Amino acid sequence: MADDLVSIDIADVETDAGAEGTPEHERERTPVRSRADGGVVAQLRLDHPDLFLRSTIRRAPDVSIEPEHWTAVDDRTLVFLTVHGDAFDEFETALEIDPTVADPVLLDRYPDRRVYRVERAAETITFTDRLASIGAHVLEFSSCPNGDGWQIQLRFPSRDDLIEFNAYCDERGVSVTVDHLRVSDDGDDGVVALTEKQQDLLTTAYEEGYFDVPRGISQDELATRLGISKSAVSQRLRRAVGELCGATLS
């Protein structure tokens, strides 16, 4: 909650560089105003009964929902969602009775995911506009695997911006849980460190032979071992491997 987050000292934030940002004389010159140096990377979980798609997330925890983009059309806000997993009937049934959205439409389907468009209800509690206004960069954004709201990874330009966002959520009764914090490393070329959950999954997958040929453990078995859904395993593996490839190949 707010008091917990506001009390966070910069010394509590994990960092490999041991510095809060790049010294002024070492920063790259740019003709536009820059807030790209330093900052804080935070892994947060946000929850409130009236958050966007909150009802659907609770009723369909076996899929992973990722908002891809949204746009304003006349007086409506349309949101495009990619949904991973295989419990699509459960998801669509929940979507039809979710009070935070209207007019859900299936736009595309693949073996392991589907793409939907929904209209966001006017009275829905949101936080994306506030993130945009303070300059927070959304790195990851998906529903929580256990059905408890949204999990989101962001880079805030400064610790004060993180505290400001927490206060904004607190004013609206949105609970904020901090899973991971670290000082942004200006030398990482935008590659974000793996979260603790991603590290745990990769460690278990490697030790149990998931990457062997033939595989020593399946995604279903990994999900059972870690107590999470299969869609959460698939999502975390994809993101973790993608970040490792980016760090190695860039």
Automatic annotation (TrEMBL):
Is the keyword Disulfide bond assigned to this protein?
no
Q: Give me the ranges of the annotated region Disordered.
A: 12-34
What protein does this entry describe? Predicted DNA binding protein, contains HTH domain
Does this UniProt record's set of keywords contain DNA damage?
no
**Extent of Basic and acidic residues compositional bias:** 22-34
Report any Pfam family annotated for this entry.
Answer: HTH_10
Q: Where is the HTH cro/C1-type domain?
A: 215-235
Q: Which SUPFAM superfamilies match?
A: Sigma3 and sigma4 domains of RNA polymerase sigma factors
Q: Which UniProt keywords apply?
A: Transcription, Transcription regulation
The record ties this protein, via Gene3D superfamilies, to: Winged helix-like DNA-binding domain superfamily/Winged helix DNA-binding domain (1.10.10.10)
